[in-house]
Structures are given as structure tokens and as C-alpha cells.
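Methods: example folding runs. The two proteins below were folded one after another, and each record is reproduced exactly as written to the output file, sequence line first and C-alpha cell line second.
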Amino acid sequence: MHYRSREVVQVRSAYDCDVLVIGGGIVGLSTAYAVTRAAPGTRVTVLEKEQGPARHQTGRNSGVIHSGVYYRPGSLKARYAVRGAAEMVKFCAEYDIPHAVTGKLIVATEKAELPRLHALVQRGRENGIPVRELGPAQIIEAEPEVRGLAAIHVGTTGVCDYGAVARQLGEASGADIRYGADVVRIDRRPDLGAAVRTADGTIVRGRVLVNCAGLHCDETARLAGDDPEMRIVPFRGEYFTLARPELVRGLVYPVPDPAFPFLGVHLTRGIDGSVHVGPNAVPALAREGYGWGVVRPRELGATLSWPGSWRIARRHWRYGARELRRSVSKAAFTEAVRRLLPAVTPDDLLPAAAGVRAQAVLRDGTLVDDFLIKEGPRTVHVLNAPSPAATASLPIGREVARRALAALAAS
């Protein structure tokens, strides 16, 4: 798809939209919502390859509204999660979307975890989040079946239906949302904008392009002619549903390892009353590899050819081995859960749908630990937006919209 010289005049006057968003997950739809809120009358088109919104990261997480207690003070994750949690509750209330502010426990089960737990107390305070420290008896009072040496209670954590949030964002945006629109080629011209071809041959032209393609954001950036300087390495998170949901009243988390962006196997009572258990974190063999049987050689080859993938493997092989063991052994997964919930048995864990985390990895093997947004000519790329991106989606959308509108004004 290339512009011929005699087409240039036509292209200048034949834009289909002002802002063209690739990706109909919660970040893409929040961006569309933010653009039309900030600049009414701006024409926005969203292209989503699936037949509906939020089919991947957004629709396959545990529905937690994160407080922001984990994230480095001053980082985008910390600022946007704290702000986004309050805004998400307000948005859900405004549009009558099921939600609840439940609070959560972060529980230390070993002495070695106590310093990290205390560090979380300090981090929470630095991020402006009220936390309350609990002893063993207070843990049992809050969660009768949970055991631990100490815990903190974070009151601003909640749960909601993020699929419903994404649908509402799309409807409220007034954008032209096109499902089944798989982008296969992009012709981006700094003096013209971007023309995008979808798999069915449709061409959509926009003055500014926004890349919110999630699991495929690095590939989309390269299609647009930009080097993202990172790669998405997909990690699958496997979940179970608790057959005895009465064992858990709310949300219970272990103390996370600060070396990794994963929060560990936790217990989440969802908005429907069911309790999700998980996830672990294992390499996926495809960008949308929701099971070991899903293998896409081209995507796997791209992951294996990225130097950062091998550096992660060398640096963190012990952690990876533990996660793989939990993936192939239900007994090992149960053992991890029993650290928090001793009463659980293998029979209590019923298989549930898995998710895949789109984790940006740098060439040197660094796991990008903050949201990453970059710009190119007439283009904004969202290159790292895993958890807590759903919680932070409203502030993220505003920031991406701000950059897109600035590019539009300069065009």
C-alpha cells in the first residue's frame, strides 16, 4: 500500500478520521473516549481485529481495581493507578457497571518476607495510599481461613467488570469502532498521516495514528516504520476457580518479589462472587498462547531471536523453573496456594480461562516495569501497558489522547 503521486491531493482531502486507533482493548477505547471528551467533534476510528472489545488482556484478567501500593513512587504506574482506581470506581457508579471496593490483604507467610512487607507499607504511604498493618489474629479476623505472620490491609482495592467498562467506553466515545478489522499494513507519511490496510482489503486513512495493539504493539510500531526498541515477550497466567468460594471473603495476595512485575498466585473474589486463584507466569508459545497447545512458530521464533529473551532466561531461570512446575503440576500449584490458604485441596481448584501478559522486554533483558508510551511522526505508540493498565486506563487514555491531539494540532 503506497501513495502514488497523482493520489496525494485526493489523500489530503479524503481522511476517514482525525485519530485512528489500532486496538479495541480498554486502553484503546479509553483513548478514543478521552479524545472525544477533550476535543468534541474530533473524528475517531478504532480498528479491532476481534469481533468484539476486550478479548485479550482486558477481558482475561481477574477484574481487580488496583490501589497502586506496589509501584515505584513517581512512576506512571503509581500515579495512574492511584488516580485511576478512584476514577474507575466513579466511572462504574456513573454507568451502573458492577463493582465493589473490597480492600485486600497482602500476607507474609515467611520471616524472609517481613522486610518486603514493611517496605510496601512505606511505599503505600509515599504513594498516598492508606494501609493498615495486621498481626496473625487480625488476619484471621479478616479472613478466617488465611494464615500468615503479618499482613497489610489496603482499603482502596476493589473489583469490577472490565469487559463492561470497555464496552461502555466505546459507546460513550462516539467513535467509529470497527470489529474484525485486522491491520496488516501501514503507510505512515509525516506530511500526510497514516493509511492502514486491513486483512479484507479495506483502507482507512487518519491524520494521526495511535497504536494500542497490546500483545502486538511492537509489531504494529514496526509496520508504521518506527523501531520500538523493545519486544513483547508473552507470559501466560493460568487461573483456577475455587470450588469452595466460602473459604475466601475478599482479596488475598502474597508479598511480591520486587525483581519481577508479577504479583504471585493470589485469591480474588470477583464481582460475581466466584473466587479466582492465580495466576502463575510462564512463557507463552504464541502472542495469544492461552494453552501449551497453542504454538505459532513465527511468533515463537521472534521471541527466541530477541536477545533480551535469553538474558531473562539466564538471569531468572530458577524463578522460571518454579513457575513451569506450577503450570504442569496441579499439586505444585496447590502447594503455592496453601501457603496462604491451608484448607485448600487439589479438588478445590477447577480450571479457568488463562490470560497472556504483554510484557515489554529490552534488548539487555530488562523487564520494562512502567507504562511505556513513545511517539513517532504523527504517531503515538503504547508499548507497555500490562497490569495495572485496566485500573489506570482512564488516566492512560487521557495521556495518549493529549499526545495524539498535540500531533493533530501540529499537522
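Second run, written to the same file directly after the first:
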Amino acid sequence: MAKPKKPPRPKAQTPKGFRDYFGTEVTHRAEMLNKIAAVYHRYGFDALESSGVETVEALGKFLPDVDRPNEGVFAWQEDAEGDKPGDWLALRYDLTAPLARVYAQHRNDLPMPYRRYAMGPVWRNEKPGPGRFRQFYQCDADTVGAPSVAADAEICAMLADCLEEVGIARGDYVVRVNNRKVLNGVLEVAGLAGDDKEAERGIVLRAIDKLDRLGPEGVRALLGEGRKDESGDFTKGAGLGEAQAEVVMGFMQAKRETGADTVARLRDLVAGSEVGVQGVDELQLISDLLAAGGYGPDRVEIDPSVVRGLGYYTGPVFEAELTFEIKDEKGRARNFGSVAGGGRYDDLVKRFTGQEVPATGVSIGVDRLLAALAAKGRLEAEATGPVVVTVMDRDRMADYQAMVAELRQAGIRAEVYLGNPKNFGNQMKYADKRQSPVVVIEGGDEKDRGVVQIKDMVLGAQLAQEASHDEWKERPNQYEVPRGDLIKAVRDILDRTS
């Protein structure tokens, strides 16, 4: 009789578009989140932790079709209850849509305005690529219920403070501010107001959102008859005349040497449009409020070329851009680019309540910010591992545990070697792999004499690379100290290597 085949073993591999994070990466992210949270807290924002799962109906952007929700989210349908079909649920794709649901659900118990920050992973069922994952962290702060653009100015100031707090030096970033109302005024001046021009406005919005990728000439083509790309595919344009296109292009190229000159240029472009003038006035007020708080153009500036998100936001829109250069995978210099963005979205909560509720907020891309700090050399390449207490005698494990307890009570990260202690060389290999700065050794002889051996792993690594034989003798990296001086000896090494 043939033996039954064993089922195949599962492959030990990360799902496509996801990745694992180890020691230092997790530590660096946690440290960054703590620093950003401290700034948010200092500004008076309260923490909110909502569910990672929402109903598809609450998420709003993705709605179920016959079989399953549209692409873009990880969704599933609950089991039916009797004749009632189960709800469609999905992992959240950002932290803003859950905020709208939370506010609508608990608005009678929340202060008005409601100021909250939230941090955590989000999931998007999109095609992964280099540096683009299906799970990533966001770090948001929002004010709900404040109609004044003073709330937008505060968000910009807070964003600048966050960047400096995590290690982005002043001069290496700029927070750029634009306003959707100014664009609406420009479209009105260009003859694109009214319900009958909705399709053309949509094409214009999508065109200007591609400014970074296509450049001015590519956008100009999309404003006109259309554009053929390198593959030969043709994208239909908005069909604007030359004068109309010139007004839109003038908006995107309105930045001048000073904020005052930029505002003056925008005011010229929207002359005759009430909503456009209102948008320019808001930009002027934001600039004045920030200047009063010490946030000048070296940190925050008015810049009409900020177009990302203009189709989504209803008023001011802002983006934090890192201005320093890095080398890409081919060794070419390029600007690092955007690490945060946000703006005013006064109609998001309306889906739930039927009433317009003003809101403004920002989202910081934690992973991109960490990559930026790594590119600038502002992250430690390796985290310091724990002090390792070796085991020379299995029967004296209580002695070794007592040492570790003393070290931990003194605030020192430490552990006892818990593998097979038979081979001392393996214990040293373990300490090296753990990046341990210090190894503590106490055999029977040391126990009888009331001493311990201290092995300075950091100095040992340096001597192995640089020192001559005589230097090894002059600067031994292993020595003994009285047992009562254990804490002091270890701390001396840690203080020297930190």
C-alpha cells in the first residue's frame, strides 16, 4: 500500500507588496512617532485610536459592486444573517475617512472644534513597486469644526515643528501652501464655471495634478486638444482655447520672489471672481498669521505650483517638501521631494450628517521621512544591543540572573545567554550578532575571588581593525573588576560608546 503523500510545506515568504521590519527599523519608527506625537500634543491635539477595519460604506471612496468592492482596498463580506446579506468590511486605506465616521458618530460627546491626531498602519490593495508597499504608516493631525484659516496656519506651523523635531534641519525643507479657491477663481475667469463645464474642469484638475510628471508643456497639451505619450496612446484634452489655457498656466507659474509679490500676481489672475479673491485673501491671512508666529518664508511659503490634492481639498492645501538632493539607484542627483501633505476638506463629514462641517488636517509619510533621515545620515546604522551575561556554570544560573536583574534595575538593557552554554565560543558569537557592547563573564575562579570579567566588545572591534600587537597590550578590551563594581564598569563603557 502506497504511503499517503504529505501535504507540501508552506513557503516562508512575505506576501507580495508587504515586508517585515526588524529591530533598528522598528525602533527608529517608534522614536519618530513619539517625537511627532509630542509636537501634536504640545499643540493641544488629543490622541485617537480607531479600528483598522471600517465598513466599506463608511470608507466612502470604494463602494461594493455585485461581487466585491472596487479595487483599492482589502475587503470582505461578512456572513449573511438570515435573509439579510452581510456587511462589506475593509481595512482602512487612510486615517481621514475613519475620522469622519468617528466624528459623525460621537459628535455630541466631542468638543467643538475637535482636535485629534492618529498614527498607525493603513492598507491599499494596489500594485506594489520599488518603495511602494501595500501596508505603510501614516501620522495625521486634524481639526474638525474650525472654519477659520487660522486652523490651516496652525497646521502648517505644527508641520514645520515636526520636521525639525525629528531631525530635518531648517533650510532642508519648506512647507508650501496653495488654495483650491484660487484655482476655482482661475477656472471661473477662464470661462469654466457652471454645471455644463464640469467635465472640462475635471480634465483641467487632472492635468495640473500631473505637472511634476509631464512638465508645463505636457499640461498645456492636456488643457488643449490632448496629448500623445511615448507609447502612442492619446489622452483627450479639455479643449481650452489659447487664452483660456494661458490663464490656467499663469496660475501654476504665479510664484514670485516674495510672498507679497506672489499674492499680488494671484490677485491679478482672479480679478472679477468672488471665490478667487476669497482664496487669495485666505492665503494672505495664512501668511500673516505664520509670520506673526515666527514662521517666515524660510519655513513656510505661498506657492501656487502646489497642485497635488487640489481635486480633493476645498480650500488651503499644503505640502512639506525636502529640498536637499540624494542619489538615486543609478547615482543621479535628484531632490528628495514631498514627505507630508494636507489641506482643508469641508465636505467630508457631510456624507454622514448631511451638514457641512469644516475640517483641515495633515498626513506625514513616516516611511518616507525615515528614508530621508537615513539619506542624510541622521539615523544610527545599528542599534546598541543588550549587555550579555555569559553562562560558565549551568548550576549557577541564579547568580547570572541576579547580575542581569541588577543591570536592568540600573536602567541598563541586559540579558543572560539562554542557549546551550557548553561552547563558550558560541556565546561570544551570539553577543557579537546581538551587537552587544559589553559581555560579562564569571566562572568559578572569578566567583571565588569576588570579581567578574568585563569584555568591551566595541573596543575589541576597533582594536581588531586598527591596532598593532603593542596597542592590544596597552589597551586590553577584557579586564576584571570587583563584583560590586559591575554596574559602574558597564556604565563607563556605555557612556563612552553612546
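Comment on the second run: The radius of gyration is 30 Å.
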